[in-house]
Amino acid sequence: MCRYLWLWDLENGMELAKASAAGLAEMFLPALLMKDADIISRFSAGVVCVSSILFFSASIPCILSTRIPLNIGQLVIVWFIRTFLSLMLAIPTALLIFS
């Protein structure tokens, strides 16, 4: 994920990568960790938080209540992909809005 953030030449790219990874432990942690960063990084962290909330509160209970054969490790991989895709959409959007 850090290489992708490096492509956008963000001022707080490494901190955003760490904060996004911390979102697995707590959904609001990325926004809290990025509170002093620039607006583009804060916006991107906020999008990751909202995406995590939607994933953990909607998708995972639905998946676990059905017979879809996914274990916890596979759900973590899905979370990582979803976080990466959230950043792929959030960073260009933030650059368009705030630059």
What does this 3D model show about the protein?
There is one protein chain. By secondary structure, this protein is mainly α. The protein has one domain (2-98). The chain has helices at 2-7, 13-22, 29-33, 39-65, 72-98. The protein is elongated and about 45 Å long. It starts with a helix and ends with a helix. The chain crosses the membrane at residues 39-64, 76-98.
Write the layout of secondary structure elements.
Layout: H1 2-7, H2 13-22, H3 29-33, H4 39-65, H5 72-98
Helix pairs in contact: 2-4, 4-5
Keywords:
99 residues; Nucleoside transporter/FeoB GTPase Gate domain-containing protein; 76% helix; membrane; mainly alpha
Helix content percent band: over 70%
**N-to-C SSE series?**
HHHHH
Q: Sum up the overall morphology in one term.
A: elongated
Sheet of most strands: none
Strand content: under 5%
Transmembrane segments: 39-64, 76-98
Keywords: Membrane, Transmembrane, Transmembrane helix
Protein name: Nucleoside transporter/FeoB GTPase Gate domain-containing protein
